[in-house]
């Protein structure tokens, strides 16, 4: 696959030379900072040097005093509390934080996680009735609740207090609860609105500790769970999230809790160098698997495990669920690709709408994302559940999938989401009209150029400038994630050293140099199709887009190029 290279541009180009001079850094590093919106010495100092002391006061969040006071009262009075969570990673980590915190004070605590398919997302009347049956006097919702208008009224009528911890966008009305904690509330002046659900729960824990006369620092024990939520929920890795992520990774790597350690042992991941990407691609999907397959309680039970034995048992159960999820994932992907081959004309169809009555709702979102990556077209995967068609939609840059669905609103039972991802429900008889309408919307908006995948480049760079000092500065940009992605560089006129080869299952391996630089090892995963062109590339006419990373082999660590794309000039 070849990409269209798009260069990221700083909002303030004039800040690049200023940063270069004031910080004594190269123009490349200064440009990386400016692209990330860091335009001054003070902003750069905070970016590189901020520590846990830079966390904001939790009381700056609207309703925090009300929420912390009520939760502290529940602790003092030994009330029964129900923690109401969500079935994804952010929801299960949030639930675990609040559950463990309250249990440490000897409270009788239970948790309620909605079933993905039976209950759907968010607070429900059934969930509140569960609290009534358990004689709970307080419900604390985490990672959900900001739209629970009717449910909050129902809880109040049944003498149940409700504290809502959420981070999603608010509706036109705020629920009538004891406290509604959400940094995205229009009337909330909290300095950072990018917290995960677990981040908001962490803030409530901090404030509650202070209400009890205890050190807010006692909440730091939960930063590992906050870090997992940040990495998995794709929240921006800037501002306060960078501090929470960095400190959380440190906790995972130095003082791993039983549940996470059991999962890491099972997948042979060693503590000490666990990174954001390892959470995203290894830890997070396994925690998420339980909720995707229906019941997320196994994930919570793993995270709240207080013995090695229980943690090991739950980790094995979770891995078994994940294996099932991967099988469903693989089968769905195969069927979807076959359907594309048989029914889609890529020369005229600007969007992909695929339906099978047997696809598992828990995996169609993942598969839709992969198909978008393959075909660079808006993709909707649909399945049939109880006589209705339900599905997940994913999109490409420049095509707002939520707005596109809104233009089909009269054909849908319901829909919701945002620019890049959405969910929808329609009646079976509306399937063909919906396909036709959605295709029309996509045809009006998209053109051939939109179907060429883009690669966002941070900067051109000469390999002769890549040395140990450059690498040390680059590592200080970590942890990487949304709004602070690992920088992608382009080097032009590279010389191929030696003979490129294919290793493993189709991975391109080669050596390159430029303008007298040292020779760098380079690897391109699943890029075997480039082998003929790079083998014939002998005149320094190779242009390469890549990221830099460390590679350790036989106790020797060196810098390595991980290839993202290759272009050979004629």
Top keywords for this entry?
570 residues; alpha/beta; inorganic pyrophosphatase (n-terminal core); Diaminopimelate Epimerase, Chain A, domain 1; OB fold (Dihydrolipoamide Acetyltransferase, E2P); 3 domains; five-stranded parallel beta sheet; five-stranded mixed beta sheet; 19 helices; 20% strand; globular
Reconstruct the topology from this structure:
Blueprint: E1 4-7, H1 15-23, H2 27-35, H3 41-49, H4 64-76, E2 81-84, H5 89-103, E3 109-112, H6 125-133, E4 138-142, H7 149-157, E5 161-165, E6 179-181, H8 197-211, H9 223-232, H10 240-254, H11 258-266, H12 276-292, H13 297-303, H14 308-343, E7 352-355, H15 364-375, E8 379-385, E9 388-394, H16 401-406, E10 414-417, E11 421-427, H17 431-445, E12 454-457, E13 459-460, H18 468-475, E14 489-503, E15 507-513, E16 520-524, H19 531-535, E17 542-553, E18 556-568
Parallel strand pairs: 1-12, 2-3, 2-4, 4-5, 5-6, 7-8, 13-14, 16-18
Antiparallel strand pairs: 8-9, 9-11, 10-11, 14-15, 14-17, 15-16, 17-18
Helix pairs in contact: 1-2, 4-8, 5-8, 5-9, 5-13, 8-9, 9-10, 9-12, 11-14, 12-14, 13-14, 14-15
Would you kindly provide a written description of the structure presented here, covering whatever features stand out?
The chain has 570 residues and is of the alpha/beta class. It folds into 3 domains: 56-318, inorganic pyrophosphatase (n-terminal core) (Alpha-Beta Complex); 344-451, Diaminopimelate Epimerase, Chain A, domain 1; 455-568, OB fold (Dihydrolipoamide Acetyltransferase, E2P), CATH 2.40.50. It contains 19 helices and 18 strands. The protein has helices at 15-23, 27-35, 41-49, 64-76, 89-103, 125-133, 149-157, 197-211, 223-232, 240-254, 258-266, 276-292, 297-303, 308-343, 364-375, 401-406, 431-445, 468-475, 531-535; strands at residues 4-7, 81-84, 109-112, 138-142, 161-165, 179-181, 352-355, 379-385, 388-394, 414-417, 421-427, 454-457, 459-460, 489-503, 507-513, 520-524, 542-553, 556-568. The strands form 4 sheets. A 5-stranded parallel β-sheet has the order 3-2-4-5-6, sandwiched between helices. Strands 7-8-9-11-10 form a 5-stranded mixed β-sheet, sandwiched between helices. Strands 14-15-16-18-17 form a 5-stranded mixed beta barrel. Helix 5 (89-103) runs parallel beside helix 8 (197-211), helix 5 packs across helix 13 (297-303) and helix 9 crosses helix 10.
């Amino acid at each position: 696959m070849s990409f269209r290279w798009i260069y990221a541009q700083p909002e303030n180009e004039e800040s690049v030379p200023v940063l270069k001079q004031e910080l004594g850094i190269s123009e490349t590093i200064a440009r990386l900072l400016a692209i990330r919106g860091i335009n001054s010495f003070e902003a750069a100092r905070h970016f590189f040097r901020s520590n846990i002391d830079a966390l904001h006061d939790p009381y700056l969040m609207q309703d925090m005093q009300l929420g912390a006071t009520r939760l502290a009262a529940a602790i003092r009075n030994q009330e029964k509390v129900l923690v109401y969570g969500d079935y994804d990673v952010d929801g299960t980590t949030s639930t675990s934080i609040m559950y463990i915190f309250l249990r440490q004070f000897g409270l009788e605590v239970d948790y309620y996680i909605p079933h993905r398919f039976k209950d759907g997302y968010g607070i429900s009347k059934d969930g509140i009735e569960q609290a009534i049956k358990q004689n709970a006097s307080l419900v604390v919702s985490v990672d959900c609740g900001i739209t629970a208008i009717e449910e909050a009224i129902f809880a109040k009528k049944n003498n149940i207090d409700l504290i809502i911890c959420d981070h999603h966008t608010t509706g036109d009305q705020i629920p009538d609860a004891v406290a509604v904690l959400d940094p995205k509330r229009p009337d909330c002046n909290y300095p950072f609105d990018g917290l995960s659900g677990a981040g908001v729960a962490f803030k409530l824990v901090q404030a509650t500790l202070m209400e009890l006369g205890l050190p807010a620092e006692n909440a730091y024990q939960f930063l590992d769970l906050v870090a997992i939520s940040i990495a998995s929920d794709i929240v921006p890795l800037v501002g306060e999230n960078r501090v929470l992520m960095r400190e959380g990774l440190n906790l995972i790597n130095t003082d791993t809790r039983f549940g996470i350690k059991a999962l890491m042992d099972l997948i042979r991941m060693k503590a000490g160098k666990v990174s954001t990407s390892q959470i995203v691609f290894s830890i997070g999907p396994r925690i998420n698997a339980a909720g995707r397959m229906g019941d997320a309680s196994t994930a919570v039970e793993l995270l709240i495990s207080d013995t090695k034995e229980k943690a090991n048992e739950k980790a094995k159960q979770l891995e078994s669920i994940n294996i099932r999820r991967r099988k469903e994932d693989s089968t769905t992907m195969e069927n979807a690709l076959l359907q594309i081959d048989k029914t889609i004309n890529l020369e005229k169809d600007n969007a992909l709408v695929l339906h099978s009555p047997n696809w598992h709702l828990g995996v169609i979102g993942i598969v839709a994302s992969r198909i978008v990556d393959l075909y660079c077209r808006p993709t909707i995967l649909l399945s049939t559940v109880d006589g209705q068609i339900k599905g997940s939609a994913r999109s490409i840059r420049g095509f707002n999938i939520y707005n596109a669905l809104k233009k089909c609103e009269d054909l849908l039972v319901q829909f919701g989401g945002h620019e890049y991802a959405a969910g929808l429900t329609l009646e079976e008889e509306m399937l063909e009209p919906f396909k036709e309408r959605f295709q029309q919307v996509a045809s009006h908006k998209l053109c051939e150029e939109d179907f060429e995948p883009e690669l966002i480049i941070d900067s051109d760079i000469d390999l002769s400038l890549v040395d140990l000092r450059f690498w040390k500065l680059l590592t200080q940009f970590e942890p990487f994630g949304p709004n602070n992605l690992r920088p992608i560089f382009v080097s032009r006129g590279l010389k191929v050293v030696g003979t490129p080869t294919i290793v493993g299952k189709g991975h391109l391996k080669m050596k390159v140099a430029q303008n007298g630089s040292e020779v760098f090892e380079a690897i391109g995963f699943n890029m075997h199709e480039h082998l003929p062109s790079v083998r014939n590339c002998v005149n320094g006419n190779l242009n390469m887009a890549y990221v830099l990373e460390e590679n350790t082999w036989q106790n020797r660590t060196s810098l390595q190029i991980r290839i993202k794309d290759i272009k050979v000039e004629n």
